[in-house]
Fold each of these.
Amino acid sequence: MRDVAVIGVGMQKWGELWAKSLRDIFVESALLAVDDAGIDHIDSMYVGCMSSGLFSGQEHIGSVLADYLGQKNIPGTRVESACASGGLAFRLAWMEVASGVSDIVLAGGVEKMTDVSGSDATYALATAADMDWEGIHGATFPGLYAMMAVAHMNRYKTTREQLAMVAVKNHKHGAHNSRAQFPFPVTVEQVINSVKVADPLNILDCSPITDGAAAAILVPADMVSKFNKPGVKVIGSGHATDTISLSQREDLTALKAVELSAKRAYEMAGKKPEDIDFAEVHDCFTIAEIIVSESLGFFEAGGGGPAVEAGETDREGKIPINCSGGLKSKGHPVGATGLAQIVELTEQMRGDAGERQVDNSRIGLAQNMGGSGGSSVVHILEVM
Amino acid sequence: MPPSRAWRDYPQRYRLEAARCKQCGKVFYPPRLVCDKCGVREFETFRLKTDGTLATYTIIRTPSQEFAGEAPFALGIVDIEDGVRLMAQIADVEFEELRVGMPVKLEFRRLYSEGSAGVIHYGHKAVPIRS
Amino acid sequence: MRVGIIGYGAHTPRRRIKVEEIAKVWGADAPSYKKGLELKQKSVPALDEDTITLAVEAARNALKRSGGIDSRDIGAVYVGSESHPYAVKPTGVSVAEAIGATPDCHCADFEFACKAGSEGMFVAYGLVKAGLIKYGLGIGADTSQGAPGDALEYSAAAGAAAFIMGADEDKLIATIDESYSWMTDTPDFWRREHKFYPEHGGRFTGEPAYFRTTMGAVNGILEKSGMKPEDFKFAVFHQPNGKFPKRVGKMLGFTPEQIEVGRVVPLLGNTYSGASPIGLTAILDVAAPGDRILMCSYGSGAGSDAFIYTVTERINEVRNLAPTTRWLLDENVMYLEYGEYAKYRRKIRMRGE
């Protein structure tokens, strides 16, 4: 297996991109990555996209997007793992380079969510859950996380305010990200008083509906010097699944897929949680970030809430989490999120993160999760 | 949900039929083809009891399309005997009563209907046990 | 061969709405409605309750009191209602499926205004008596509608009662000693197809309809059996309001004491096909071995089914195996305001309708 590095990243401004189609959105970000890397061709590409079928009535997008990117006849693969589609696309791209099958591979993610109504979008997102045994009872995505929140709050006395503080922190960070959908701060009061979605979660606890794409170019580490930018090495990759149904989980207050995918990535990288300088994690809902931060080993079980309250996951804190603004402030075009995390890691590690820059950015971790924790993909990157 | 797809699940939805692994005794609701604990593929069918407790819950305020007009409603995960957990709405409850550990009983209810012309889907909801 | 009830059960929604709450919205005089109808409140089904769900829960309670018969031995499932959820697709199959009586089972839905429940009971009893089936399940269940502001809105309620008929000597809770039906074409109350609310003939629903028919059936069964009102411990009649059963009872020679236990309408409302059947379950909950019970249903259109039951020793063993009707009436309640009630009864026109 060869060492692999990221040598180009790209991501446009995210939001409700009315004038742009799925194809435009993907190609725009992919070209930004291509330009960033200074490559003249791509050997193969992976596209993470949760549901072009339900959102745009379009399948077969491995082919569609290779075509529209102008990369005639290359292998194009659409990857789906609900909201972890992007992270999984990145992992498969890494595998293709690491195995020696290809040298220059594009990993991209895209989601075009605003052509359908809000309730149709809710339905599409709910297909990440167990349709037959949860959806039929009226479960929504926020509802599933709300149930995790109630269990977590019941067992560990995590407070409603601590959940809100995750959103406050991520908005504070995202205010410095010009590409974020909502680059402005919010307060704890605003979060708690925003429209109720599924108790105890309000709308400002929830990641939004967003159009957007992000992309990364991967090459063998020993080819990095041929290109424009400093390389960032992929030192660990881990992937795990867990039960699709929340009611079948062993522990409603933990995310086993996250624990296992992290463990596998840590093992491959020869690192421990303490070695990670900063992370981008999957804050689809505020409670998700709290539980993920525990499952990644940054805090003990039940310690995620107090940690956020104490500022430990702020940009200046012990383990900065979601300096990009996270899904909450940056937006969550489902299939693109995993790649946007790689974009942030790369820019931080190059020292190009501007006002978002963390002081120690040698080793970064990206965690991307599908559904209510049915899948998780973790990558650990290190400055070369 | 198409009629055929709903109909396949009637034994589980209507009668709470579950499957117990003949080797290790793990109970699956809904039933599976292979036991994820011991790998065995033989099961015996039985009906779950209807008494349980709430493992967790929420109140859905923004529902999905099929449940438009029904929100707000309570949804939870119920612990039944045999280590079975299932998701169900919680009906006939004042939201202030909801708590983890609340004793509930599963009752036969409409889950949803496909408009005024489509099939009506039935199943179970959890109602509080009040002595 | 003795044939009778080997299991019985009732089920009602938890929600209730008081007469005052309805009267307030329509500017009506609540005290005079309460007095005139002898009715305080009625049951209201939630959006997730219908004739099928109520029938299933009542049937499950009946199975509990049957001392654990195998539901696969139920050879017929009959549900009588005027609010079957489908116009085409019988309520009975869903009930049979839910209790595990399928596929070896006869099923048919019955309808005859408020007496559809007693019809199901009659036919189930008849098939057992004829030796064609081992056990038969007869259920009366309804989630009836009353037009907003109409007199019927105060009383149209929801509920179900289920009776398993059988001939096993060791299982009989109450024998059916006699049955008799009386009917004529009398247009007192009806609903045309595709209409949401029923129509009625006002005061015509009284003497020429309810009273004439009930008395025809009761006098008929008394004559057929050679019995007199004094021979009975309890009597239950159809109860569209609290006054009619008292008045017809008096006209037939029954005392208020005989009628009171079965007269559940003041706290429940008129459960239509469930009305006299639920009244019967209330009686069985308190009856003693040897007590004789007269039941007479009434369905507009019009007809009455009358039955004479004698309670056996077994009643003492089974009555507490399922929720009692008194518990359903007194303790299992949640009160609604008119707005929530209108939402649950689908009286509010939604988008696309």
Note: Chain A has a mean pLDDT of 97.
Amino acid sequence: MIIDGFTMVGTSINGYQLTAEELLASMSSNGVDKSVIVPVQPKTYRLEPQNEAVAVTQLRYPDRFIGFCRIDPRQGEDAIAELRRCVLQLGLRGLVLHPMEEGYTINDAPAIRLVREAGFLGVAVIVAAGYPWVSHASQIRSVAEQAEGTTIIMSHGGQINISGLAQADAFLALETCGNLHIGTNGVYRQDFLEECIDAFGPERVLFTSMAPVFHQGFERDRVRSIKMKESDRPLVLGDNMTRILEDASKTAYEPISRVKESHSGPVVRDQKPLNKERR
Amino acid sequence: MHIIDSHTHVDEYEAFGWFDPPEVIIELLDEAGIEQAVVMTYADAPVLKSDALQYIHDACQRYPDRLIPYARINPHANNAAALLEEAIVDLGMKGLKIHQESVTASAHHKAVVSLVKKAATFNAPALFHSGDEPLSLPQQFARLAEEAPEATIILAHMGGYHHTDDAIRVCEKFDNLLVDTSACPYPHKIKVAIERLGAHRVLFGSDGPGCNPKLELQKIRRIELSEKEQQLILHDNIMSILEEVRHRVPGRRPH
């Protein structure tokens, strides 16, 4: 099972677009079985309708798409409520944070709170990572330390630097935080991926394309080019994402008591966890 | 088709943690079906690696039919110009490499301009890092291009992750600027560069061995190019640049 762990569907204010049908065509031509789909930032700046659209698309193609929601943590209590709505009502399976496009810093308090909430709900968080001012690996490391119960996937291998100067921080983040993983999209130097697999195991690396910003087929080529044990390659190509989604489902209920302890704000505890039922 | 990779590295440099003796790139070139590669060190002569030029020279001597040496030099060194002259005239090197983040100087710093103009006296190209870092931004090359119009200046990586459009824009403005495709993560942007600059101003490079040459070649294969465009990008462009390099100084004999 080959799963692209990060794609974006919709028309972005940032100048890129991808329809579900175009993504399906790309998946077919590149041998991708499933894709995690995530909303883009729309011209309206309103992510909630985009989350709903992703949920609808997931329902329409349940065998091909896994929907994640996208939320701006600066919405405060509304962000927490939106995450719970997306997971418990819309049946979305994870959270994506894009500090660069939304314009916040990943280790500010509202973002940390949202990441912790995702852990309580039992869903993973993908961070558009490696942007030096807002989502540098050292900043994500700080988040991971404060949200140990949350599985976090850093896109771009946790580093966007075409000199390789950010690799040490991404490596350190992986070394010190067992809940951190990396996505393979756009990674500078394939040997960085190989070093991470050698050091931390193939379980910590996931195939992500971040299409349409990156080319899904070429990003598939990137994973194919990693020099690693062939028997481990399926982990990177899809099994790790499957495991993360399954692990999340197992822990979905357990942290609810922690939610009660942790939040003084409104918590929608009486909502039925639809995602649990679905599974 | 005979393919030349215009941007690779050979070095064993502990501080960076990158140990890539020549055999590493040779093996990867073989895997990719690439006949020749331009090579340079990771560390700059003479500041970070005093014997960098001799090291790269020796590496190329071991594989004279495969590896083509560039001199990576820190322009701030008092003897930078002399080192470049020695590299080209005495050691037969074919170009200059400057990594601005490594030497802490932008492309328009007077020491950089001076060394690029020195390279131009030999018709030797100057290969620069370009990307998203503060000293490597594509628009910074405008001033260099103005001050050294006689120089052939190559922007490696096509502006990195977020300055690809800027790299194409600045190259549109100055005819003496070219781009190489190494590590550029966007195949479609290479296509755009070809459309806007012409295939004659785009060079295939991998930045191997860290960036796998076979994978880097896939980017070129994935965009639909004519045979002529592929020939230019994969071979002819860099070959014509290298053929123009003069290994002599009027009135001075090589050592």
Note: The radius of gyration of chain B is 17 Å.
